[in-house]
Amino acid sequence: MSKLIDISNFDYFLPKNLIAQNPEVERSNSRLLHIDSRKNTHDLHFYDLTKTLEPGDLLVFNDTKVIKARLKAQKNSGGKVEILIERILDPNTAIAQIKSNSTIKIGTKIIISNIVEVYISSRNSDFFILKFSENIDNVLEKYGNIPLPPYINKHNDAFDELRYQTIFAKNPGAIAAPTAGLHFDQRILKELKSRGINMAFLTLHVGAGTFKPIRTQDINEHIMHTEKYEIPLSTIKSIQDARTNGKRVIAVGTTSARALESAALDQNNYSLLNRCIINPVCSDTNLFIKPGYEFKIIDALVTNFHLPKSTLLILVSALASKDIILKAYDHAVKCNYRFFSYGDAMLIERQNDK
């Protein structure tokens, strides 16, 4: 039986003015709070990341691409409806969340821009199965908008469509950006390469569940959302090379961390001796990393600051420790770091003694 872990232990005070509403003008000019393996904290800028890594270290990025997943529609009665696509199942079928002023019934037809018909065929918890009269990819490209997080209080514009996307995004499917990757620009990638720091990629399509609050007092009772991920052979080989050479594997973002650790949970696909994954993976994960979890792959994590009482704050508290993380967050608040998706970043190393 799991030991009760109270969600209230993962709370902190955050002034609203520290929630970043816009990104820095230059991606790598954001700040970086570094927690080293000896529990020390260092106030840096993101472009200092290259100085904290060693030649041969491996950074693993998530190359998912945010789709224009938010659509405005209306009922026959004229009532407004908002659709947030979660996952495209086939060219005309998708799983989605729906917001409406009144209850949406199964069998209802709604319409987008007086042209595209959408039939609501079934429901599973918070999600609906939708049938579109036209190809969904085409509908999203023509009528959709990038879905900014709920704590960014503005309508997205052309600048957001550029900046709420990593520069290496290439595999469409996410409805939220892997935000740790937003800090990387060509300048920093070039410097990483020149210093002999290696880079590899995987894909995890971030879903709406990343913003789902924990509603249970005991976090062990929380059910995580499921996300699709893929780790190619080239990345597996890069991890194996890093292990062979005694170098670190550093996940860029909690999404990369969850994908890597999920792949290692299959004992038939994980080498305990070398701490590496053996085979490529294409699967789904609902892994909830929380204190007590033993990390199998990652040695450090580049990540943004996360919401109070969130699954992502709990994840980083498993890597360092709750006390170390909350102390660092308190320091960040006092030093006016910028929080969440468009905010500043952290580099968290596994602690020698948590």
Task: Show the helix and strand layout.
Elements (H helix, E strand, L loop, with lengths): L30 E5 L5 E5 L3 H4 L5 E5 L1 E3 L3 E6 L4 E11 L2 E8 L8 E4 L3 E9 L2 E6 L3 H8 L14 H6 L7 E4 L11 H9 L3 E7 L22 E5 L1 H12 L4 E4 L1 H11 L5 E2 L4 E2 L3 E5 L14 E5 L6 H9 L2 H13 L10 E5 L5
Parallel strand pairs: 1-19, 3-12, 3-14, 4-11, 14-18
Antiparallel strand pairs: 1-2, 5-6, 5-8, 6-7, 7-10, 8-9, 9-10, 12-13, 13-17, 15-16, 18-19
Catalytic activity: 7-aminomethyl-7-carbaguanosine(34) in tRNA + S-adenosyl-L-methionine = epoxyqueuosine(34) in tRNA + adenine + L-methionine + 2 H(+)
Subunit structure: Monomer.
Function: Transfers and isomerizes the ribose moiety from AdoMet to the 7-aminomethyl group of 7-deazaguanine (preQ1-tRNA) to give epoxyqueuosine (oQ-tRNA).
Descriptive notes:
This protein is an alpha+beta fold and 354 residues long. The protein has helices at residues 49-52, 136-143, 158-163, 186-194, 233-244, 254-264, 311-319, 322-334; strands at 31-35, 41-45, 58-62, 64-66, 70-75, 80-90, 93-100, 109-112, 116-124, 127-132, 171-174, 198-204, 227-231, 249-252, 270-271, 276-277, 281-285, 300-304, 345-349. It has two domains: 7-66 and 160-349, QueA-like (3-Layer(aba) Sandwich); 70-144, Thrombin, subunit H. It contains eight helices and 19 strands.
